[in-house]
Fold these 4 entries.
Entry 1:
Amino acid sequence: VPANLTPQYHAAEQRFREARSTEEKIEALEEMLAVMPKHKGTDKLKADLRRRMAKLQEEEGRAGKGRRGVDPYHIKREGAGQVALYGLPNAGKSSLLSALTHAVSPVADYPFTTHQPVVGMMPFEDVQIQLVDLPPLMDEGSRDWLPRVLRRADALALVLDATEDAATQASLLEEGLREMGLSLRGRGEPPEETGRDRVKAFLICLTKVDLAPDLKGPLEDLAPWPAPAVLVSALDTPSLEDFRRASFASLELIRVYTKAPHEKPVKRNPLILPRGATVEDAARGIHKDFAQNLKFARIWGEGFFEGQMVGRDQVLHDGAVVEFHA
Ligand SMILES: Nc1nc2c(ncn2[C@@H]2O[C@H](COP(=O)(O)OP(=O)(O)OP(=O)(O)O)[C@@H](O)[C@H]2O)c(=O)[nH]1
Ligand SMILES: [Mg+2]
């Protein structure tokens, strides 16, 4: 029986491989076990993961209640995904975090204001995205831990000050990331590793547009970049909605809504799945037995007639409503 591991499993496995601390390794393993399809084909894998888990837990115990294994800069992922804000000093990162979330990150009109990560939850439609405000490029104090935080984020938001040269800022950031072993990929490009580099999804955010005399120039300069630039101002609420949308897009996720037979298709409590997820993946997101016993599903949404019958391999799109039949 083939294991048929899901995209979520592979993502968790990647986090396991990159984990530095025992705590992180345990966390990634827990997720691998949780999202792993459970059937005959994965019995051996499950036993193997359990064994590794036991060993790690023992290690953590030896390290004195896990004190040594804990990374104080480990930011526990919450919500649909984690987007890290990265930019030059004074670009406007903390102002964005404060405008988009309930978190407060000190803002000042001088550079190098932020020294520690500040985390906030940003609502977008019916999902929550975790935003992480960070010290800027060239900040000496964060040299040791900043690369780890950036590596673990699901996507990076490159925050550029619209009153300064956009292309230069973007290149400096890309260079800085390269020095940390990070490179950027455009949307839809596969997350393959290029040598030792970790490849990150990203978006470009041109902020302080309320102060910028000209936006045509910067936009032309940024056109060759493989991610669309969003234009925002921390002072302009409608523009912030564009940032929320672009952040969600950068995570390459879909929202799938489920309903019981005879219920109206209502969009609430979405299942969050990686792009490319199928009916079977959605069923597994609810309960493993659901996926195993699934006979067919009915689907509502773009490209389908209402309640169209589909099989377990049907790829789902953002906003689809699904009804499972066992
Ligand atoms: N007019 C205007 N001013 C902004 C905007 N965003 C940030 N600022 C100002 O720009 C300055 C820097 O903002 P911060 O949010 O502290 O910038 P930062 O990128 O967090 O800076 P570091 O933490 O030093 O890297 C502050 O004086 C902000 O008030 C904006 O959209 N419009
Ligand atoms: Mg700041």
Entry 2:
Amino acid sequence: MELPPLVLDRDAGRPLAVQLAEGLRAATTDGTLRAGDRLPSTRALALELGISRTVTAAAYEQLLAEGWVQGRRGAGTFVVDAPGPAVPVRPAPAPAPRPVLLDLSAGRPCTEVIDRAAWRRAWRAGADLLADSEPDPVGLVAFRGAVVENLLRHRGLAVAADDVLATAGSTAAIAELARILPAGGRVAVEEPGYQRAVAALRAAGLVVVPVPVDGAGLVVDALPAGLAAVYCTPAHQYPLGGRLSAGRRLALVERARADGFLVIEDDYDGEMRYDVAPLPLLAALGRDVVVHLGTASKLFSPTLGVGWAVLPPAVRGALLDLRDRTGTRPSLAGQRVFAALAGHGDLARHLRRLRRELATRRSAAVATVTAAGYRPRGDAAGAHLVVELADGPTERAVLAAAADRGVRLDGLARHHTGAIDTAGVVLGYAGPTRAELDRAMAVLREVLAG
Ligand SMILES: Cc1ncc(COP(=O)(O)O)c(C=O)c1O
């Protein structure tokens, strides 16, 4: 049997298997292939079309699943008698080619500096986890030991392994904490702030109260009475970038004790700071009222899916009880990988590389923004800075102009919980490669100057 000409376009942006399945399906509906016709073997067709056998096998599987063909043991694959409704299935129109966007949104990790060999070695070490290992709601001892070391060396917090709980990352931990706070309780969040935290709190039925921030982070004096908790990012306010001043740190902890609320300290990028002295963690000032959250997402990558929490004993007990009742626990694999990275000294080496790289990138970003006539904000720490703009329309215009030139910028508008009172762009410089960042900076210079 002669097959109809099948045209496969490697540049079409759609998988070859999908294109092949479409071509064969069209041939059965337009009569080129008839009921009972035998298709060539996947191997023969692959050879004829110059493509891999995985592609032909995937296309055949698709047609089998849809009922256009059927397999007969030992005989091959045949077009069926009644291939479902006799309506020709029109291939979906190919999506219009989109310009490749260099993504400068904040929050992406700097994976370019990850030592691939060390990363693979750690995953191999993670792979000897036995399938019948016991689920562990607290976290692996080796992982918690690595966290203890990291907190002491890089965040100045002395804790014991028993004080640490493994989490599935900061946002997942916020969602867990939200479920043990009093139902319907009021939780203060920074405005602008981290909207995934806001969503996690709201999803648990809590009432979110936005509180203003300024150049020194959360305005502690503006906290209302009657709070169950305060969520904040003291090391590098997300997204505006202020560092919570020492005075405000003390005031917040004192206020938490006096009013009986819990402080959630999201230390998402606390390992990075430039030309400024370290400030004590809130947890170092008030272990009795502060839940400290750290994550491997910015240090390495969110693909690890791990983070850690240091909590007051009663909160820790309540969280473990929640995990027990709901059968939830953090995955062990990411913890194993993180522990292996720390155990081999790769974590320390990586951190040194990451800090150097981010310091260079930050200088480049600051230089670009300054050259365009703006004063960057929040650049003393972390991996993003903010360029304040006059108003919302200007923000939207800058975002659109950058997108036209292939650069995705992040506007401040989407980081607000209530009324939008600050306009600007949040410039994440960790995510792209260095070469991409250079290109993006050239675009940014033009767009800001325009
Ligand atoms: C303020 C803040 N906290 C936490 C996270 C994410 O951490 P995780 O991946 O551990 O949930 C982000 C990610 O962008 C963030 O911006």
Entry 3:
Amino acid sequence: MLLKDKVAVVTGGAGGIGRALCRRFAAEGARGVVVADRDERAREVAAEIGGRAAIVDVSNEADIQRLVAEATEAYGAIDLFVSNAGVLVGTDVNTSNTDWQRIWDINLMAHVYAARAVLPAMLARGEGYLLSTASAAGLLTSLGSAPYAVTKHAAVALAEWLSIHYGPAVKVSCLCPQGVFTDMLNSNLGDPEAEFLKLEAVTVEHVADCVIEGLADERFLILPHPIVNKYVNNRASDHERWLRGMRRLKDQMQAAREAGQK
Ligand SMILES: NC(=O)c1ccc[n+]([C@@H]2O[C@H](COP(=O)([O-])OP(=O)(O)OC[C@H]3O[C@@H](n4cnc5c(N)ncnc54)[C@H](O)[C@@H]3O)[C@@H](O)[C@H]2O)c1
């Protein structure tokens, strides 16, 4: 899919990767871009690119339904829905039930709500595109946060399932970056895992370039860090070895954390 003359809705569009996607879609000549976020900065992004803002909480299904209805009303149809809003919370299994539920609702259920809301019209038209922002953590793991790893795996699984069931009429892509310089990474700098991810982190503009390319190719996996493909193959070809390697990395990070606390 080329963005020219298309209508796109982007959740999490007020900042980070989502804002870069909104800007890039507008620059590619999209007919309409809806910047959806719970953060009021969505209005600034929309004003900057000549799009529309929608203040929504993606973990609330009624908000997603309203978002889709208003975007459809304004532009006639939605060609591309990007479920990009996400949060990184929690640590291990002792993360509170409240936080497990919150991250589940944002990182996974919001994608379910979006699919429910947009698929009927896309299927009726015989075309449409869903893009999910998951993470390399959804193909591999996240050492510092079990809830993040689990919810991102779930987002990848849902995107695969949607692609199998609704493709090729409805296209599905899944964006799986490793570190990207956004508030999510920057606010954790100092922590060994964030410092590790920073080493190979990329800019949001690079991610947007990769998304434009991936959408043009209608490719399922969009990997701004090509090395992730190698890690995925390593994991698939020898799971035991991959787990041993990840344990070693976890120990190194734990040691770095303890050294930092002294
Ligand atoms: N930054 C990274 O290193 C990285 C790596 C891989 C994947 N990701 C994923 O990329 C996506 C975008 O993250 P980012 O790095 O741009 O972070 P970010 O924190 O800069 O942006 C996330 C945006 O989502 C919005 N948001 C969060 N919860 C919301 C909710 N309930 N309703 C509506 N909006 C909500 C926030 O207000 C914010 O504008 C996330 O899904 C994240 O998990 C980020």
Entry 4:
Amino acid sequence: MTYAIIGSGNIGGAVARQFARKGIDVLIANRRGPTSLADLIKELGANVSAVPLKEALQADVIVLAVHFGDVAEVVKQITPKPGRIVVDATNAIEVPAYTPIDLGGRPSSAVVEEQLAGVRLVKAFNTLPAAVLAADPVQDGGRRVVFLAGNDVEANSEIAGLIERLGFSPITLGKLAEGGLLQQFGGPLVIQNLIKQG
Ligand SMILES: NC(=O)c1ccc[n+]([C@@H]2O[C@H](COP(=O)([O-])OP(=O)(O)OC[C@H]3O[C@@H](n4cnc5c(N)ncnc54)[C@H](OP(=O)(O)O)[C@@H]3O)[C@@H](O)[C@H]2O)c1
């Protein structure tokens, strides 16, 4: 299983940090190219490799950590491959205003999924502030909760397994029309920093 993160900013960097913490190999790509990531790679160590976007998009599991307005440009370059999953960490907000984008009530990840021909999508890593997501998930004798939702039961299970390997406690909320709405920007689970005890 190969992993890549698209976007090396607040959320991409936070997720990369968790891969590094657990010694799991991951590729990371941004718009400016690998040389712009030299400092981050030096800090995070050998498990995190900066590569061109095209190379990162060959991974089995691709974490999407770009602004919603940049999603279309990235996902149109993602090709179908058996087993491939896109993990959508985006929130549908206008930047820099941080106002919600009107999607007519549709789950934002369903809008992303529509653009992914034949590739499964799981929504995760979008509910916590980046600094919290980047911190050690083991807290006060428990593990920080990461919510996930998606329309493919097997993909949800695979990503729940990854979230667990990264040291978090996954909570699967069901399909995008149900759980996706709960965890997306404006939903009740956003900025809920929960610790599962035990
Ligand atoms: N910040 C938070 O606390 C937070 C919390 C939850 C969810 N989110 C969501 O997470 C997503 C990322 O937010 P962020 O704060 O991490 O943003 P950010 O710090 O501005 O980082 C965005 C990253 O996307 C990359 N990017 C943009 N277009 C690209 C393209 N065409 N190809 C490859 N990479 C591209 C940028 O590359 P360059 O660096 O080369 O410009 C940058 O590394 C957003 O959808 C946001 O709503 C953010």
